[in-house]
Design a protein that fits this description.
By secondary structure, this protein is of the alpha/beta class. It is built from twelve helices and ten strands.
Length: 349
């Protein structure tokens, strides 16, 4: 008897390897949009957990309706129906409101992950499986390069990070498309993924996918996405190692009150020193999304280029000052205005 199509076999093997360490009887949830990537992942997961499958797990799915397109509700219900047909249970649809900071793409991502985490907690899932492929990894690395990001951003998405698992991260998008075709699955095609050539308002990732990567492959030769993904994997190993060393060093130089002792930190390599400073300022209340390299360099100068400069203001109303051999991080009290109810003698509520 002939086996499954090669692309189908690869997606199934990827899911089996990704989930092999999960406890028997645990529940995994597939985040399914109905597109080729997540639909191929749903099919592979359903196969892996069947009665005679390689995994002793249960599998369900979550479909998130972002309500960003006129027919989004119908698309979500169609994806849910396909997941149920594959045998996944439970299959849940969640509607979100996309109104967070950072533009539509970032806001949609934040809303989606919040919904997925909430459902996972609700049903006690051991993991949430995400359909990102090697091509998604390559696109993210290119975007990070264009922004001048650091090693953590350029290291891309991790195959496993806490609740999240990405079984297909080593497979090209062509495998998920071929797996759907071989199994008779009809994926949804997001119109924003194929913008018109003159559409400058299309999502940035879609423009990288349809315009930038094809040029790189034409000029540099095939295999650019795979090469970018290999770069991300190598950077992730280095970055993880540096982060672990920084955590150890932070325990030695950051006092319980949040003050950073200068002498044991100032002579450390810049990569470690600035990681420790980042840990310190985040603990002090600086929002991670608002913290930039420029901020960290200014704080670092208090250690390495001290010439009496004053307090360094950071996002989140945090200030860093050098005094008595350490850096103090604090949030100055808000001034009391003459119009406040307390000054006018009104009762505080």
């Amino acid at each position: 008897m002939a086996g499954p199509a090669p692309a189908v076999a690869r997606t199934r093997s990827a899911v089996t390897a990704s989930c092999a360490d999960l406890p028997d009887g645990g529940l995994v949830l597939v985040a399914c949009s109905g597109g080729a990537d997540s639909l191929a992942l749903a099919a592979a997961t359903a196969f892996a957990v069947r009665a005679h499958g390689p995994l002793a797990l249960r599998a369900g799915a979550v479909v998130v309706d972002h309500r960003m397109q006129p027919d989004s509700a119908a698309v979500a219900e169609r994806a849910a129906a396909q997941c149920r047909t594959l045998g996944l249970d439970p299959v849940l649809v969640r509607t979100v409101t996309v109104d967070g900071p950072g533009g539509p793409e970032a806001a949609a991502r934040d809303a989606r992950y919040t919904a997925l985490r909430a459902v996972a907690e609700e049903v006690g899932a051991a993991a949430v499986l995400l359909g990102h492929t090697r091509d998604d990894q390559a696109e993210g690395v290119l975007l990070g390069l264009a922004r001048g990001s650091g090693g953590r951003s350029l290291s891309g998405m991790a195959p496993v990070r806490g609740l999240w698992r990405r079984p297909l991260l080593d497979l090209p998008r062509s495998d998920t498309e071929a797996a759907c075709a071989a199994q008779g699955l009809d994926p949804w095609h997001d119109p924003t993924n194929a913008p018109a050539p003159d559409d400058l308002g299309a999502p940035l990732r879609s423009r990288v996918r349809t315009r930038v990567l094809p040029v790189l492959e034409r000029e540099l030769g095939p295999g650019v996405p795979a090469a970018l993904a290999r770069t991300a994997a190598a950077l992730r190993e280095d970055t993880d190692a540096l982060d672990q060393l920084a955590d150890l060093l932070a325990g030695q130089v950051i006092d319980p009150d949040g003050r950073v002792r200068i002498e044991p930190l100032a002579g450390q390599p810049a990569a470690l020193r600035r990681r420790v400073l980042r840990i310190a300022v985040l603990r002090a209340g600086v929002p991670a999304a608002a913290l930039t390299r420029t901020h960290l360099l200014a704080v670092d100068a208090l250690l390495t280029d001290w010439h009496g400069q004053g307090a360094i203001p950071l996002p989140g109303r945090v200030e860093v000052v050098r005094a008595c051999g350490s850096l103090a991080l604090h949030q100055p009290p808000r001034p009391v205005t003459p119009d406040s109810p307390h000054q006018q003698g009104e009762p505080q509520r």
